Predict the structure.
Amino acid sequence: MSEPETPDAAPALPPEAPPSPAARWAALVGSEAWSDAFRTPKVRVPRERWVEAHRALKEHLPFFSWLSAIDWANEVAVGDPVEGGPIEERCEVISRLSDVTAGEGVILSTDLPPDDLRLDSLTGVYGGADWHEREAADMFGIRFEGHPHLVNIYLPDGFQGHPLRKSYPLLSREIKPWPGAVEVAPLPAVEAAPGEPREGGA
Amino acid sequence: MTTPADRDLLARHRSEAAVSVELQTPEMTLNIGPQHPSTHGVLRLVATVAGERVVKVEPVMGYMHRGYEKLTEVRTYAQITGLVNRIDWVSGFANEVPFIVAAERLMGVEAPERAQYLRLILTEMFRISNHLIFLCSFPSELGAPTPLMYALRERERVLDLIEGVTGGRFHPNFNRIGGVRPAAGAGAKQRTVSQDLPKGFLQGTRRAMAAVRGVCDDLENLVLGNEIVQQRTIGVGVLPAARAIEYGVSGPNLRASGVAFDLRKVEDYLPYHRFDFDVVSMPHGDAYDRCRVRLEEIRQAVRIIEQALDSLPSGPLQAKVPRVVKVPRGECYVRAENPKGEMGYHLVSGGGRRPYRVKIRSASFCNLSVLPWLLQGVLIPDIIAILGSLDFVLGDVDR
């Protein structure tokens, strides 16, 4: 999606345009919000209709590829924040379904408010969602309701925190700064051209 | 004529026999791993067994979780290729390609044709290397160490070629956004003479491919024709297509279940549509078919490489990209047919020099997720046969 901060801005479909794959999947799940940017069909569904939407698509897209989440946050402990101003803070859960014949697929997405990370489990629709949901629970602290066995998959028992949240620091960097960081600063002897900082190394 | 002493003995035997019939085998927990040669990394299986039968298996993972998805958020795009080729270390180069293609797609850059061909040739070489490793490690897990020598000998020739082009045997770190690194730093001898492919690469590759064809025939007799391997694998660990699809099992494991689906035929991350090759699929879905699919895929990979060598275009290896790579805001998912199955990256860029979020979809994670289902009710020795036939690497599961 080119504009992730405006989830409900569905592009208007011109009548003469060929039907976009995302629009077709959106119609099947009864959603208006879809995007085809960068050839990645993506359909947004409200969180109440998350399981229902997957059930509607299972007949066409039986292959459960993956499920994960994106923590949209303005304050980040690691990496760079999204450029271009504040975004709406939320936890976006995304899952990808595809077929095994024509190579079509779609990403379904739903937004959870940061203070209420609960979502219905997909394990009743796609058995393969089991481990993916356990991973997302580990990494983001999402509570998948109805999951049969929601225990840590990667993290040790009793681990505190959810590592892929943007508020979670990268502890090795806290102890020792990344040595690669010196590469991207302009070298003292060389004046960087304005607007084009030098990138050394590779 | 039985003497009283004999009768005594007989009676005692009877009573013992009766005891052993009535004896209930209690369920027992059997721990396999984390350090076990057939787990390809560090995987622990907690198996509940009743006698020789497996009741339930619970895989315990995370021993190799290196947090790559978090690390990508603090690295620049150029640094990430060095990271991601360690996910599945048996096919390092193939891990780089979908990531780089995703970044290129967001930037609107396309690699020159020659670079795309080189990516394709190297990906197929890693497919050969991966499948040869499978065809030698799988029999050795079943107790036949000989094929290992045959397969590794030819794999070494392929790795030498890879090293000649990229400078690395396992972790080439050869892709750049908009192309591949001109091989100026490749192989000690070529460093000063060549900026492109090393001298003698085309001829050397043709010879190596002929040798790979030869070893395929050898392995077909030695492994697939082996009666003991057949008895250990035919009808063992049958994975029905519907179950495989629902669990996201991909690659050779899916094709062995009768689904002729190959991302090389439907996606355009590399110019596979220009080459003539078959999608190999087998009907039974058992461990033996998974083995056969991989052997046939080596032959198909050889075909692709030979065609690519014949039509290798000339030209630059690198498209024009800014010196400091910044990827515009947006997100896209690019997947590729890796030796182990569907490998994909969902790349979310916030507009900066580092990704905002990268979701790594690795083939082994999904291929392994079907394991608890697959191991229900099998015999204990079959655990290893089934585990080995799925061809996973724990680095690819845990990431």
